[in-house]
Specification:
The chain is built from 9 helices and 6 strands; from the N terminus they run E-H-E-H-E-H-H-E-H-H-E-E-H-H-H. By secondary structure, it is α/β, with parallel strands linked by helices.
Length: 233
């Protein structure tokens, strides 16, 4: 089965002090993605950074919202790495058909980011410069993944956030039922490999039940499709 290679370009000047970023890092570790913290780069090797971009299928920019933009570290990395020739000027679509997404965190409530709200602007409008770069590079743009007020989330909400974040990193898009099912089935199978030396009948039961219910849904869809065809006839 084809697996996406995901690059997470992270920008945070004090990442070790960030509860949000440390939480996301632990989630990313379970997904076999490349976590690339730009502030840790002593020197930016442009060719190496561009090669890193070319060798991944999905590229995620991840950062906290600093005055309606990313921290300066990401801007510096962009200016050095995303040269005109690399993005579109040399005639090669170096980033063409790759997927581009943004994971942005904010300490403000999400309801504030709307027209008429206290911020009077949407998150997507704030992210417009990054979407413009991705569009110029002929990339496929994913919906923005916004994390609002992580510090106020209870454990249950954080666990749901973790799953949603992991899906954002590696699930095939669009985010429909079929792609969600395939992602969860793969995750179940991968996690249960850790129990190779343990009698885990319960694990096998969970996976078998999930697969059976997935097949039941597929059969139901086929039945509904046949009924609709009969009505059209």
């Amino acid at each position: 089965m084809f697996r996406l290679k995901t690059l997470v370009v992270v920008s945070h000047p004090k990442i070790n002090d960030s509860q949000t970023q440390q939480f996301l890092l632990e989630g990313a570790k379970l997904q076999d993605v490349t976590w690339h913290h730009v502030e840790e780069l002593k020197n930016i090797d442009v060719e190496k950074e561009q090669s890193l971009l070319k060798n991944h299928d999905r590229i995620i920019f991840q950062f906290p919202l600093y005055w309606y933009s990313a921290p300066s570290g990401l801007k510096h990395w962009e200016d050095e790495v995303l040269t005109r020739n690399f993005v579109y000027g040399d005639g090669d679509d170096n980033l063409g058909d790759k997927e581009f997404g943004i994971v942005v965190s904010t300490g403000m409530p999400l309801k504030d980011f709307c027209h008429g709200g206290s911020e009077n602007v949407t998150i997507d409008e704030i992210m417009a410069p990054y979407f413009a770069i991705a569009n110029r590079a002929k990339m496929k743009i994913l919906p923005t993944f916004t994390i609002a007020q992580f510090q106020y989330m209870n454990e249950s909400v954080q666990m749901q956030l973790l799953i949603d974040y992991q899906r954002y990193l590696t699930q095939t898009y669009p985010d429909n039922l079929k792609n969600r099912q395939e992602w969860f089935e793969r995750e179940f199978a991968d996690r249960f490999k850790d129990f190779n030396d343990i009698n885990c009948n319960a694990c096998e039961t969970i996976l078998d039940t999930f697969i059976q219910r997935k097949e039941n849904i597929d059969q139901l869809k086929s039945t509904i499709s046949l009924i609709k065809q009969g009505e059209d006839d």
